[in-house]
Design the sequence.
């Protein structure tokens, strides 16, 4: 699974939450790959999570290294791939993402968006990732918002399904599968206030 999205939305922490969830609760063999070498802190953060969880981590410095990294983790049930945040105006990063997609067998793509993103920014994010073949939406920071309309707006704008929501900073506790009934209740609750 490949994690994409703008800078600062919480991709690395979300990936660590899912790695912990799958390895601890679901007893799956997990491998981690990071292509986010633009930020040293992101690599260090993922290294720490990988060490704590006892999960192997591969660091790739260009898309061509993805095939080798995937091969290194071929015995894993799940491989999670972190990427650098993409500015909506950076065409070079778009090219790099396309190269990543062409170099590896990517089963799932998660477009990670912060729940506190404005409607206009959501439109820009969705439009800047429309080159993707398919993806699921994953929303972070739902604990920081009072209105849940952004979730619905992004689903309508993109035509893509929701996958997960993060609800805080704790790893692995603060992540959950997006439940349509709960989201409907949150939307209705936010309309009443």
Sequence:
């Amino acid at each position: 699974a490949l994690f994409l999205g703008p800078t600062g939305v919480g991709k690395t922490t979300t990936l660590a939450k899912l790695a912990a969830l799958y390895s601890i609760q679901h007893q799956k063999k997990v491998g981690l790959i990071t292509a986010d070498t633009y930020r040293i802190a992101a690599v260090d953060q993922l290294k720490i999570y990988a060490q704590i969880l006892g999960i192997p981590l591969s660091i790739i410095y260009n898309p061509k290294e993805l095939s080798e990294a995937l091969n290194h983790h071929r015995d894993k049930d799940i491989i999670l791939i972190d990427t650098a945040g993409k500015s909506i105006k950076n065409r070079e990063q778009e090219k790099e993402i396309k190269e990543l997609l062409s170099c590896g067998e990517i089963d799932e793509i998660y477009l990670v968006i912060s729940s506190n993103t404005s409607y206009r920014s959501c439109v820009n994010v969705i439009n800047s990732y429309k080159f993707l073949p398919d993806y699921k939406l994953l929303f972070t920071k739902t604990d920081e918002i009072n209105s849940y309309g952004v979730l619905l707006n992004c689903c309508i704008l993109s035509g893509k399904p929701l996958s997960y929501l993060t609800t805080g900073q704790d790893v692995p506790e603060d992540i959950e599968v997006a439940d349509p009934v709960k989201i409907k209740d949150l939307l209705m609750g936010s309309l009443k206030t």
